[in-house]
Amino acid sequence: MSDDTANVAIIGAGDIGRGWAALFVAAGWKVSLYDNDSSLLESAQPEIERRAKTLVMLKHADAESAERGFNQLHMGRSLLDGCRDANWIIEAIAEDTKAKQKLVEGLESAAPEAEVVSSSATAMSVHDMVARAQRPERCLVVHPMNPPELIPLVEMVQGEGTDPAVVEKTRTWLRQVGRIPVLLKKPVLGNIVTRISAAVWREAIDLVINGVIDVDDFDRAVSLGPALGWAAAGPHLSHNLAAGNQPVAGFFQHLLHTYQDIWEDLADWSHLDPQQEHTLIHKVDAAYKDNLSAIRDARDRRLAGILQGMDRARNR
After folding, report:
1. CA–CA distance from 309 to each of 54, 108, 180, 315 (Å)?
2. Which domains does the chain have, with CATH numbers?
3. pLDDT value of position 296
4. What is the value of pTM for the model shown?
């Protein structure tokens, strides 16, 4: 094992944990997976293999590396067994702060030699994560997008006590498996991506439950509209490019003024009542329930195609 690779232990065999595992397995890294739900762990292995093979098929990994990684995949019988020889431990259990704190505390004895302990948490701060840890310097949040093996962006959030060397080592490992890490300068609830997702989804929900647009048409409007543009350039850069040869200051002032009326009209609620929840769930279920497997495959192919196209454009 070189300094640019790690033995990885993933705690949590849900969708995120399986995605992390598929990513590292496809890269040929040594991976151990543990979950205290034995049935979840048992069903994880074939899915990890399927997802790793998909990366090979999509030319995001080579077959030899993936075969080596899968042959090394270890299903832990206990937390101690799952973490043996790990340099990097990835926590990917359910979003339960107390459970995550207990796990990080348990890693003090189960994995005292691990160099990095990262949480995949969406909304838990590093401060909360290390509340019961004896070695907070090795802890940080490393939050992937879903599916982790396909979408390259990863958010990194360090705590007050996180060792800068741990941040750099983790960043190096992420880059070795084709991830693009972004480091938050200070913690915020939900990090960056989830905050943006929450803001957009609230407006999406509001427009759907108020009968402005159907679920599937809204999803098309976003995926083929701003999401497509933002895949090539984020919102600030997109607006900057839209200015063309105009002075940026004048264009932005005009744009901000134009958006004021829209911002005032946007949804600003923080919860749905039970009837609104029922309406939303019914509409989403009715739009997609009969085709989820085919839709998931098509989503993965589109994601891969977008990423391959971006790679080709970047390398020209």
Report:
1. 17, 44, 16, 10
2. 8-183 (3.40.50.720), 193-314 (1.10.1040.10)
3. 85
4. 0.86
